[in-house]
Design a protein that fits this description.
40% strand; single chain; 3 helices; Thrombin, subunit H; mainly beta; six-stranded antiparallel β-barrel; 11% helix; six-stranded antiparallel barrel
Length: 231
């Protein structure tokens, strides 16, 4: 089954998937990932987009590779790019993974504000969880420690969901989960157009560490964030 990064609003309407089909797609597309940083293992989720494994920078910052498993056999793949401000990281696509998220077109935020979405992640590093939520708003991410806009989603997520996909009712990836608002409990997610821009600048000749903003802080909490300078 193939998932897609959300297409522009001008695209031809896509068929709406049933809740059962959306859950199946989310379960197949969401990989469990882990990275060894600062002498500890950080767990999260990831998804294949345009031939690269995409997850959050806060999961892998300080590492040179990550391990992906569930629902695939465990495999270690090298990181190719990390952007702390966008809280995104890219790694090589694991061999044998057939779930390719084909389109990289930017999403129009106005077309999905207030829309019901499907969220998926390996909660607490365990089995896959799938739940529904509603995108409340797209807001500047500076208050949450991001260098880009973020979506606020009315859904309760926790550690391990980071890097998991947010799907619209056609099965398109409209965002990647990252953390939550400490005051409201709303989930924070990186919009698809930010992901597409990150993919455009992803370098394939080694790990490129870029920063477009703070790594953490403000009102937001990253799921499973690692602070190598703490303690």
């Amino acid at each position: 089954m193939i998932a897609r990064l959300a297409a522009p609003s001008s695209s031809a309407p896509q068929p709406v998937l049933s809740p059962v089909a959306l859950q199946a797609l989310a379960q197949q597309a969401t990989l469990r990932v882990s990275a060894s940083t600062c002498g500890r293992v950080t767990l999260g989720s990831g998804v294949i987009i345009d031939g690269r494994l995409i997850t959050n920078a806060h999961i892998v910052e300080g590492a040179t590779d990550l391990k992906a498993d569930q629902p695939i056999d465990p495999v270690v793949v090298p990181l190719t790019s990390i952007d702390v401000g966008r809280d995104l990281a890219a790694a090589s696509q694991p061999a044998g993974v057939s779930l390719v998220l084909a389109s990289r077109a930017a999403v129009n935020a106005e077309t999905i504000a207030g829309q019901t979405v499907t969220l998926a992640g390996h909660a607490d590093g365990g089995g896959i969880e799938v739940q529904s939520g509603v995108i409340s708003a797209r807001v500047p991410g500076a208050a949450y420690g991001y260098g880009v806009d973020v979506f606020l989603i009315d859904a309760q997520t926790r550690g391990g969901y980071s890097g998991g996909p947010v799907l619209d009712n056609a099965g398109n990836v409209v965002a990647i989960l990252s953390g939550f608002d400490r005051a409201t409990g709303l989930s924070l997610a990186i919009p698809a157009d930010v992901i597409a821009d990150f993919l455009d600048t992803d370098r394939r000749d080694g790990v490129s560490q870029e920063s477009a903003g703070q790594a953490s802080g403000g009102l937001g909490t990253r799921h499973g964030a690692t602070d190598c300078g703490a303690g």
